[in-house]
Amino acid sequence: RVKSENSKTIWNTEEVPEGSEFDDTWDPREQPEYEILFKQCVGTEDVFFGMSGKDPSTACCEDIVIKIKLPETKYSDITLDIQDTVLDLRTPKKKLLLHLPYPVNSKDGRARFLSEEEILEVTLRVSRKFDFINFA
C-alpha cells in the first residue's frame, strides 16, 4: 500500500491520467473535424529493396500529422497546448481534446495554419523506445 503524504488525499497523482485536467464536459463549444495521419521517412533502400525492415504499419512511422478543420478562424484565435499524450486546442467556437495514439515528444513539434483551406496542421515526432525498426 502506498502511503500518502497528505492523509486527506483520495488518490496519488500517478493514478490520474495525463490530460484529465482538460476534460470539460460543460463546455458548449463543438469539436472540430480532424484527421490523424502517420508519416515515415523512407528512402530507395526501403522502397525498392526493403533493406531497413520498415513496413507501411504505424509501428514504423516517425511522425503523427493531425489536420484540424477550423472554418471562420483566425490564426491569432488559436490556443494550442501539446503534452506527451494529449493535444488540447481551443478557439472561440471550437474545442478539441485529443488523446494521442502514441506518446510524442511535446517539445519537438511543428504547427502551421493553412489560411486558404482553414486547416491547422500539427506535426509531432513519435517518442519510441529503441526497437529493431526505429532507432531514433
UniProtKB/TrEMBL annotation:
<protein>
    <submittedName>
        <fullName>PIHD3 protein</fullName>
    </submittedName>
</protein>
<dbReference type="InterPro" id="IPR026697">
    <property type="entry name" value="DNAAF6"/>
</dbReference>
<feature type="region of interest" description="Disordered">
    <location>
        <begin position="1"/>
        <end position="24"/>
    </location>
</feature>
<dbReference type="GO" id="GO:0070286">
    <property type="term" value="P:axonemal dynein complex assembly"/>
</dbReference>
<dbReference type="InterPro" id="IPR041442">
    <property type="entry name" value="PIH1D1/2/3_CS-like"/>
</dbReference>
<dbReference type="GO" id="GO:0045505">
    <property type="term" value="F:dynein intermediate chain binding"/>
</dbReference>
<feature type="compositionally biased region" description="Acidic residues">
    <location>
        <begin position="15"/>
        <end position="24"/>
    </location>
</feature>
<dbReference type="GO" id="GO:0051087">
    <property type="term" value="F:protein-folding chaperone binding"/>
</dbReference>
<comment type="similarity">
    <text>Belongs to the PIH1 family.</text>
</comment>
<feature type="domain" description="PIH1D1/2/3 CS-like">
    <location>
        <begin position="31"/>
        <end position="126"/>
    </location>
</feature>
<dbReference type="GO" id="GO:0005737">
    <property type="term" value="C:cytoplasm"/>
</dbReference>
<dbReference type="GO" id="GO:0030317">
    <property type="term" value="P:flagellated sperm motility"/>
</dbReference>
<dbReference type="Pfam" id="PF18201">
    <property type="entry name" value="PIH1_CS"/>
</dbReference>
